[in-house]
Amino acid sequence: MKCKDVIRELSNYLDGELTREMLAEVERHMQHCEDCRLVIDTTRHTISLFCNQEPAPLPDDVHERLHQALEKRLRQSRV
Amino acid sequence: MNPATTKPQPSTIVKDDEAQLVAAAKAGDGSSFNELVSRYESKIFRLAQNITRNREDAEDVMQEAFLKAYTHLDNFQGDSRFYTWLVRIAVNEALMKLRKRRPGEFSLDEPVESDDDFIPREIADWGPLPDQRYERNQLNSILSEAIEKLEPDFRVVFVLRDVEELSTEETAKLLGLSVPAVKSRLLRARLRLRQKLNRFFERE
């Protein structure tokens, strides 16, 4: 397995979707390939940074306009 | 002050009570619906911003998504999380906006794959906790800037799979793409983002 083949399987590797045979091949490659190991580690980290990122609170003006629009709709549906 | 525009305090209702809130909202209780909105408004706004890359559009998308959710609340059957249902509505709104503003920017065609896509550049060790080098605000802007610069075809797939954590199948269905197309776009999105972030996080 070459570096290019490992990178093609990177998502499947990180998402735990490789067959047992492919997994063994990727891991065998990583044992002697520092570059692939680093790419996989840093990609894993990239995903976790985005996935764990807390959203910023809604800006006050945006929040206010949203709730005004909702209040208007709620009032209409009560009529 | 109008109570409807008062910024709510963080909810004390535990997540498991969501079904009760939805049931009450369906029965016409506006304050329960407001509570659901307050719980998810910042996430839906971020999702809309990530897709449209425009604050005004994102605000329109978010408002429209919550208003549609309220109108069609009876269609929510409770077979997924309420948030997932909201995400579906918001993504459809955001894609409509994106297509209207920039026709052809999000394509359903699979871009031609070149071997070059799979040759990572800028390979470096980031160390165990690279993000701790930055304040939260700084980190947020680094991540927002990186995602904004990603091509829309890749950005939308990445946002749904890795930020919103939808499954590959759900993402494919929402976007009208095949499962292999989602996987291929996701892989390239992840590699490009990794490359964009490298200069911020590589170990000094």
Characterise this structure.
The complex is a heterodimer of chains A (79) and B (204). With 79 residues, chain A is mostly helical. Chain A has one domain. Helices cover 77% and strands 0% of the residues of chain A. The longest helix of chain A is centred in the last third of the chain and has 19 residues, at 60-78. Chain B starts with 17 loop residues before the first helix and ends with a helix. Helices cover 61% and strands 0% of the residues of chain B. Residues 1-13 of chain B have low confidence and may be disordered. Chain B has two domains: 13-101, Rna Polymerase Sigma Factor, Chain: A; 115-201, Winged helix-like DNA-binding domain superfamily/Winged helix DNA-binding domain (Arc Repressor Mutant, subunit A, Orthogonal Bundle), CATH 1.10.10. In chain B, helix 6 crosses helix 8 (179-201). By secondary structure, chain B is mainly alpha-helical. Chain B is built from eight helices and no strands. Chain B has helices at residues 18-26, 30-52, 55-71, 82-101, 136-148, 152-163, 168-175, 179-201. Chain A binds chain B through residues 4, 7-8, 10-12, 35, 38-39, 41-43, 45-47, 49-51, 53-58, 60, 62-71, 73-74, 77-78, and chain B through 2, 4-5, 7, 28, 30, 33-34, 37, 41-43, 45-46, 59, 62-63, 66-67, 70-71, 115, 118-120, 123-126, 130-131, 136, 139-140, 143, 147, 158, 162-163, 165, 183, 186-187, 190-191, 193-194, 197-198, 201.
Offer a concise description of the structure.
Chain A has about 80 residues and is mainly alpha-helical.
